[in-house]
Design brief:
The protein has strands at residues 19-29, 32-41, 50-57, 68-74, 81-83, 89-94, 102-110, 125-127, 132-134, 138-148, 151-160, 166-175, 186-196. It has 202 residues and is mostly beta strands. Strands 3, 4, 7, 8 and 9 form a 5-stranded antiparallel β-sheet that branches. A hairpin with a 2-residue loop joins strand 1 (19-29) and strand 2. The protein is rod-shaped. The model has no long low-confidence stretch (mean pLDDT 93).
Length: 202
């Protein structure tokens, strides 16, 4: 009865998915954030359904306090494949109410609820390489000057290319020896604009 059992040494490999955002970019359109991304399954096993969530962040590191702006859901992702297979997919996200004016990164987080057991849980996040500006963003889009005797006729167009309306502001015109404004440049005159909606011109 002493030889009824045997033991052998072996290595057991657990095959799991490995989800990671592979590309990410963001832009502004009509007061919304348009996010383009691709997610890959680098693992050797298929992944069941999961979501990819997008967050606003003041830096390029995800924190639990970063506000969620939207998500997209995948019904699954085969091993060693990507969604989409080529390029990126666009998701249009509204800007959260009461978001302070400022510059923000977008953070993509694959499977933020840990619904999928993965071989690597440390590569599920990715930050955009550039920031987007939220709030008013005023731009002098055109400027021309004509001399009329001892006076100047100045024509200009100001655009609000930001995501929110701007309140009342001034446009001031200065006389400068070069094309770069300095505090020593001489103020000629100003005009007041009583607010400007996002995307509007004056």
């Amino acid at each position: 009865e002493s030889n009824n059992s045997a033991c052998a040494s072996a290595t057991l490999t657990v095959i799991r998915p490995d989800l990671t955002p592979s590309t990410l970019s963001a832009s502004l359109l009509n007061g919304n954030i348009v996010i383009k991304d691709q997610v890959k399954n680098l693992g050797s096993a298929n992944a069941d359904a999961f979501s990819i969530s997008f967050y606003l962040s003041s830096d390029n590191l995800y924190q639990s306090s970063d506000p969620l702006i939207c998500s997209r859901t995948l019904n699954g992702l085969a091993a060693a494949s990507a969604n989409p297979t080529l390029g990126s997919i666009s998701t249009t996200c509204p800007i959260p109410a009461n978001t302070p004016t400022g510059s923000y990164y977008i953070i993509a987080f694959a499977d933020p609820t840990n619904a999928i057991a993965e071989s690597n849980e440390t590569n599920n996040k990715r930050a955009s390489t550039s920031k987007i500006n939220i709030g008013p963003d005023l731009l002098v889009s055109s400027l021309s000057v004509k001399t009329l005797g001892a006076s100047f006729e100045i024509r200009d167009v100001v655009k609000n290319q930001g995501t929110e309306a701007a309140g009342t502001f001034m446009v001031s015109y200065y006389l400068s020896a070069d094309s770069t404004y300095q505090s020593t440049d001489r103020l000629l005159c100003s005009r007041a604009i009583a607010g400007l909606a996002n995307g509007a011109f004056s």
